[in-house]
Each structure stands twice: as structure tokens, then as C-alpha cells.
Amino acid sequence: MTGKADPETQAKTVRPANKRGVARLAAVQALYQMDVGGAPLTSVVSEFTAFRLGKEIDGAQYRDADEQWFKQILAGVVEDQKFLDPFIHTALTEDWPLKRIDSLLRAILRSGAYELLRRKDVPAKVIISEYIDVAKAFFEDDEPGLVNGVLDRLAHELRDDELDTGKAGGAS
Predict the structure, then answer these.
(1) Residue range 14-33: average pLDDT?
(2) For residues 17 and 122, what is the distance between their CA atoms, to the nearest angstrom?
(3) Which pTM does this prediction carry?
(4) E strands along the chain, which residues?
(5) How distant, in Å, are the alpha carbons of 3, 64, 89, 150, 163 from that of 30?
């Protein structure tokens, strides 16, 4: 998995990524790598910061990322995973438990849930929108809608006052 979406397709369906957006995409890739390959957090962070973020790989230039944001998402998801997974599970339909969800989609949901829970400085609507864009970079079917629905349910649980008052919005 290269973690690169086709540039022509991405330009049509996804807004241009900012440094935090790139960090979110990289964090999802790193979480996927940890989940599938069993790599430890420290080695994945080292690999991404040394060889991927803002680097050229096989002739493809990866965008610059907010390295601190990337590291905070990864560390936060790993630290809070025992809380995040049951929380995400409650937002899924009964016939689709979290363990049945694709590893990449799980990484997207965990990252989004972490930010909704711990990053109150970022509006919930921005977080949801950013992770929908991440999902669109990898999936073309129903997955971005699933990400939207799950993160929206979680946001209403965690930040209902923010969403109801219309204060959400702005740039991340």
C-alpha cells in the first residue's frame, strides 16, 4: 500500500490537503501498518518521519505533513484505543461490529474518534470533513459515508453543544 491516491481522481473528489490533512492521512496509513504488520509505534513513527513525510518515494513526491500532529494522532490512538474501540463500536450498526470492519477503515475511525475526544481545539465538523477526505483517498464506494455517519454520531455524543449551537466550522 503506497498511501497515494491517483492525483487526477483525488483532485476531482478531495480538497487539496493541508499539512494537518497530510498528517491525518499518514497517521491512518501508520495505524494500518501497525494493525496489519504488528509494527511497534516507535519504529513506525521513525519510518514515516525519516522516509515518507515530505519525501520522494519511487518517483512520487509525498506532501509535507505537520509532523507533530502526525505523532500526536498516533500516540493518542494507541494510548486511548481501549476506550476508543468500544466507543466506536456503539456508533456502528449491530450487524457490523468494529472487529468486522476493514483494517484501513478501522484506522480512519480510530483517528477521527481520537480527535473528536481529545482535540477540542479543532471543530468537530472540520474533523469529520477531514476524515471523510481521507476515506475518499482510499475508497470509492460506501466507506466515506460510513465514516461520516459514525464520526457524526460520536461527535453528537462528545460535542453535542458545539454542533447544536452552530459554532463548529473554520480551518484546522
Answers:
(1) 84
(2) 16
(3) 0.82
(4) 56-57, 60-61
(5) 10, 16, 21, 21, 30
